[in-house]
Design a protein that fits this description.
mainly alpha; 2 domains; two-stranded antiparallel ribbon; 2 strands; cell membrane; transmembrane; Energy-coupling factor transporter transmembrane protein EcfT; transmembrane helix
Length: 260
């Protein structure tokens, strides 16, 4: 049920808690830094980690194509929604001025979203559910919550693939799934949404049966794990580099006033 890709790469060997820390560092970066070029560089760096981890390139291509429409949406919304002081006008849509600052802010927002998507998917593709749950319990999280979060993380990619499969199946049957009219498209998507909800419920019931069959509900706080996660020398090195790079990047950005 997981989108986990087994491997022995440096990304796979990292403790899940180290990956969580890297994720937190990235979130700090996107909060303090809004320069599109820096954010684009971070996106490219994360995509290179997919290559290092041995993730199939078609999965990476699919994620990039899925994020591009969101970035475009961010840009369009910023043009019409975000007010700009002393704008640099580069054109007009009818009589409405288009400011370069609005486009730049939209690009920054879209690239921030891409960072979140790319790294969260990298985390689930290089970390098994067992390792994820074990790491969360090491962080003193209740076992029930850890299992729920672990299953939730691993189900994101499966849900996306499930929706795409149902969509392709409905299109092969002649169902009008695609339409330029937003109202017509919303109605057509019912044929995709309803089966997706049904299959999600079935998967949830199957997971519940598996947990019951393994007696998970009997004193879950005292459960043991087959594989115990622990920090290694590699984790300490990566943690030091991540924290150091985050602090340096934030300080340089603020010191030289290159937020934009």
């Amino acid at each position: 049920m997981s989108e986990y890709y087994p491997g022995t790469s440096i990304i796979h060997r990292l403790d899940p808690r180290t990956k969580f820390l890297i994720f937190i560092c990235l979130m700090l970066i996107v909060v303090f830094i809004m320069n599109p070029l820096i954010l684009l560089g971070i996106d490219i760096a994360i995509l290179l980690l997919y290559v290092v981890a041995g993730i199939p390139l078609h999965r990476v291509k699919g994620m990039i194509l899925g994020v591009i429409p969101v970035i475009i949406m961010f840009v369009i919304l910023n043009i019409f929604v975000i007010p700009v002081k002393n704008p640099t006008i580069i054109g007009y849509i009818g009589s409405y001025p288009i400011a370069w600052e609005s486009i730049r802010a939209g690009l920054s927002g879209g690239l921030r979203f891409a960072i979140f998507v790319f790294f969260s998917r990298l985390l689930t593709m290089t970390t098994s559910i067992g390792e994820l749950v074990s790491a969360l319990t090491k962080l003193k999280m209740p076992a029930e919550a850890a299992v729920a979060i672990g299953i939730g993380f691993s189900s994101v990619g499966i849900l996306i693939e499930q929706i795409n499969t149902i969509k392709e199946a409905q299109m092969s049957r002649g169902a009008p799934v695609e339409s330029r009219n937003p109202i017509t498209k919303a109605k057509a998507l019912i044929s995709v949404i309803v089966p997706s909800i049904y299959l999600t419920i079935l998967r949830g019931l199957s997971i519940a049966k598996v947990l019951e069959s393994r007696a998970f509900t009997y004193n879950p706080s005292k459960r043991t794990f087959r594989k115990i996660v622990k920090f290694t020398k590699l984790d300490y090195i990566v943690i030091a580099i991540s924290i150091g790079a985050t602090l340096i990047l934030i300080i340089i950005t603020k010191f030289y006033h290159i937020t934009y």
